[in-house]
């Protein structure tokens, strides 16, 4: 992988990591992996949840939970020739934070809400570099400039909650590079961010890496991002390395069946297969080995056409929808924030309207207004000519069944104390569906089958299921009411690519079978193009463009739409 005379900055050899399971059994999560990080290079570690990629980075930083985890005796992690696993706590603290620094996925959980961001960055400088208050403050300003923070002079005294997600992540990066580390570990640093902000952060990390001659370990579940930033890539699955090599080779001629499968699950902008391929289309477990069952050429993917002719019946007609939020300001007035500024659109029966825009564009607010979870400040939403926004609760009741919503994190909306059976039965009871519980149970079991969950899920609890399975439970619960409109709010964005493909296929099957109409809200433009007939682009509470999905992606009319499309990770070799 590299010339022999050059010692790598970091060498991981034979890394075995075990965690204590529920019944005090040790479970091996990382199974003897070895890899190097050369000097001045970016190595990407790619894998789905449970692959061991984040655990590996925590092991390097010495951050694994004590007593709950153990690293095997024969494992070695050498940094500049020193074995990190044999250092005292004090020696580890000196290296980690100074020579090796880390940024995490969720900046808010790593920043302290009660201190200004300036103080938090300054603390790192004072601990590791012994600066006084004045020196630290001027260095913090330099760092905020360097990470591209807008107007650093005013932001240095801001609290984390006063910054946007992208700005918080810039603060985390400033803290990480404050002591000029030799290795920067970035664990899913852009997952929570909009596509345009993601692009800025990726470009920032790359320019900092070059300027400071750092190495970077970039951890992600998104292969498309890897091509934008990495020199070398390591693909992990179930604690093992499946494939490693130069990024061009791995992404363009992957040798391993799993890598090939992952590359094919993600919706492509250039094609729209009738159903998305999933990993099991390509491989099967046989005697503990992954065996290839077919390659993409054999799948012969039939294409699905999308779009509206204008002849479709309209199920929902939204006119001049407005929402303002007010906050008290000063002694006299209120401060008005217009989240949605007079938005109009129509939803065609049995079709999907994609809704894209960055955080704060108003796209999520629209979903909540249509569900009456927020009260609209103005405008109408007509179903069969009746405005559902101005109805009383009683009048709205029969319409409530017709329109349902699925959120990004179904865990928050599934009652943890209810079994899956109770979760499915409750809405049917409330709305008087089915004659009795026996009949409802029969319907619930049919729904579980429909969303590909095992029958025994009926008596189990939400925490026993993975993210993708919980999302299916949330979908099944919506279906109990036989709705006509489903609003999906980022409902696949937290899922791994192979699971995302399964859930998108499920949503598509349900639409084909029941003629459901979808409003699909997402910041993932590849997914939106795949699933939508029509796409509406929002910015600052206004619709900037609305068009059939192929048309919008091929011939965007508005500058803002072009900016969004340009930020989609293209996959390969864009950073060199």
Question: Can you describe this structure?
Answer:
By secondary structure, this protein is of the alpha/beta class. The protein has a domain at 256-304. Helices cover 36% and strands 25% of the residues. The strands form 5 sheets. A 6-stranded mixed β-sheet has the order 7-8-9-3-10-11, with helices on both faces. Strands 19-20-21-16-22-23 form a 6-stranded mixed β-sheet, sandwiched between helices. Strands 1, 2, 4, 5 and 6 form a 5-stranded antiparallel β-sheet that branches. Helix 4 (117-129) runs parallel beside helix 7 (165-177), helix 16 (420-430) crosses helix 17 and helix 17 packs across helix 18 (467-479).
Write the topology of this structure.
Layout: E1 10-20, E2 26-37, E3 42-46, H1 53-61, E4 69-71, E5 76-79, E6 82-83, H2 89-95, E7 100-103, H3 107-110, H4 117-129, H5 133-146, H6 152-155, H7 165-177, E8 183-187, H8 195-212, E9 215-220, H9 223-229, E10 232-237, E11 240-246, H10 247-252, H11 257-265, E12 283-286, E13 289-292, H12 296-299, E14 314-328, E15 334-348, E16 352-356, H13 363-370, E17 378-383, E18 386-387, H14 393-400, E19 403-406, H15 410-413, H16 420-430, H17 437-450, H18 467-479, E20 485-489, H19 497-514, E21 517-521, H20 525-531, E22 534-539, E23 542-548, H21 549-554, H22 559-566
Parallel strand pairs: 3-9, 3-10, 7-8, 8-9, 16-21, 16-22, 19-20, 20-21
Antiparallel strand pairs: 1-2, 1-4, 1-5, 5-6, 10-11, 12-13, 14-15, 14-17, 17-18, 22-23
């Amino acid at each position: 992988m590299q010339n022999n005379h050059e010692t790598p900055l970091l060498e991981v050899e034979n890394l075995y990591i075990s965690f204590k399971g529920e019944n005090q059994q040790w479970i091996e999560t990382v199974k003897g992996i070895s890899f190097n990080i050369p000097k001045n290079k970016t190595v990407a570690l790619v894998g789905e949840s449970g692959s061991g990629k984040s655990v590996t980075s925590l092991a390097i930083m010495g951050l694994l939970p004590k007593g709950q985890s153990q690293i095997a005796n024969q494992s070695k992690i050498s940094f500049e020739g020193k074995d990190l696993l044999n250092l005292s706590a004090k020696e580890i603290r000196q290296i980690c934070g100074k020579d090796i620094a880390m940024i995490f996925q969720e900046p808010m959980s790593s920043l302290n809400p009660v201190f200004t961001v300036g103080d938090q960055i300054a603390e790192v400088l004072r601990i590791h570099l012994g600066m006084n208050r004045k020196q630290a403050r001027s260095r913090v300003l330099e760092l905020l400039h360097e990470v591209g923070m807008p107007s650093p002079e005013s932001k240095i005294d801001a609290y984390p909650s006063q910054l946007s997600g992208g700005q918080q992540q810039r603060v985390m990066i400033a803290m990480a590079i404050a002591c000029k580390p030799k290795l920067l570990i970035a664990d899913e640093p852009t997952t929570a961010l909009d596509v345009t902000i993601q692009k800025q952060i990726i470009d920032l990390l790359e320019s900092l890496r070059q300027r400071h001659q750092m190495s970077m370990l970039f951890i992600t579940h998104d292969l498309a991002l890897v091509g934008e930033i990495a020199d070398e890539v390591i693909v992990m699955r179930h604690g093992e390395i499946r494939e490693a090599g130069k990024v061009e080779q791995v992404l363009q001629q992957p040798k391993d069946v799993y890598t090939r499968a992952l590359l094919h699950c993600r919706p492509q902008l250039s094609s729209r297969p009738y159903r998305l391929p999933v990993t099991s289309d390509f491989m099967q477990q046989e005697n503990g080995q992954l065996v290839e069952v077919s390659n993409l050429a054999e799948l012969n993917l039939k294409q699905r056409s999308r779009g509206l002719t204008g002849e479709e019946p309209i199920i929902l007609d939204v006119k001049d929808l407005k929402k303002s939020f007010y906050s008290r300001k000063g002694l006299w007035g209120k401060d008005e924030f217009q989240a949605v500024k007079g938005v109009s659109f129509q939803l065609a029966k049995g079709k999907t309207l994609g809704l894209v825009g960055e955080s704060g564009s108003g796209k999520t607010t629209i979903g909540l207004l249509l569900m009456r979870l927020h009260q609209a400040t103005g405008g109408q939403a007509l179903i069969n000519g009746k405005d559902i926004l101005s109805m009383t609760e009683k009048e709205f009741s029969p319409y409530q069944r017709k329109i349902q919503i699925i959120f990004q994190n179904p865990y928050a909306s599934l009652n943890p104390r209810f079994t899956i059976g109770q979760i499915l039965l409750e809405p049917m009871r409330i709305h008087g569906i089915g004659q009795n519980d026996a009949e409802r149970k029969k319907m619930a079991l049919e729904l579980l089958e429909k969303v590909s969950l095992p029958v025994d899920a009926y008596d189990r609890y939400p925490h026993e299921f993975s993210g993708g399975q919980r999302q299916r439970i949330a979908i099944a619960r919506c279906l109990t009411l036989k709705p006509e409109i489903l609003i999906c709010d980022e409902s696949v964005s937290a899922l791994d690519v192979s699971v995302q493909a399964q859930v998108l296929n499920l949503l598509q099957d349900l639409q084909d079978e029941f003629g459901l109409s979808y409003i699909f809200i997402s910041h993932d433009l590849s997914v939106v193009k795949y699933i939508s007939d029509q796409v509406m682009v929002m910015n600052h509470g206004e619709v900037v463009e609305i068009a059939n999905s192929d048309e919008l992606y091929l011939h965007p009319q508005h500058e803002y739409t072009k900016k969004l499309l340009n930020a989609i990770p293209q996959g390969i070799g864009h950073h060199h």
